[in-house]
Amino acid sequence: MFQQIIDQSKKDLQKAVDNFKSDMMKLRASSLSPEILEDIKADCFGQEMPIKQLGSISAISPREIMAQLWDKSYVDGVLKAIEREGLILSSRIDGASIYFTAPALTAESRNDLIKLLNKKKEEAFQELRKLRDKAWKDIQDNFAKGEIREDDKFKGRDKLDEAVRDFREKMDEIAERKEKEILG
Asked: pTM, whole model, 2 decimals?
């Protein structure tokens, strides 16, 4: 019984790592990545839709990306969505295409990005702790119901702690790589 809880927890922990990895891809480093725009929701005829569903996004150069929208009427909604996200990108419109250019990173902007990275990392670690606490509570509840023996309860806790440690290390590695990327 406790193994089922551990297995489910590992799935949830992997989702948390995947979400963290996705967040890290959106953080701008020395070059812009199309992923920075993909999931930003833009207003399209009164409905919020991710930009990746409104057109194709591609990298033109390390500091420039292009959103080639399916329809010219999407341009205003996409521009407003980018502005709302607080991305510091200048834009140039050419028909249904929008070219986004990022300013060169300064020492100050790199420090700001590192602070944001650390904030996101701490939020991700909090998510891991919540998932661990939930799984541990499930194990304890099953022990209280008599569905898990006492020694299995503690084996479960040890396996759970080991899994959380492994996933936390993965997050640390992702954050370290991103920090090196930001610092250039």
From this structure: 0.69
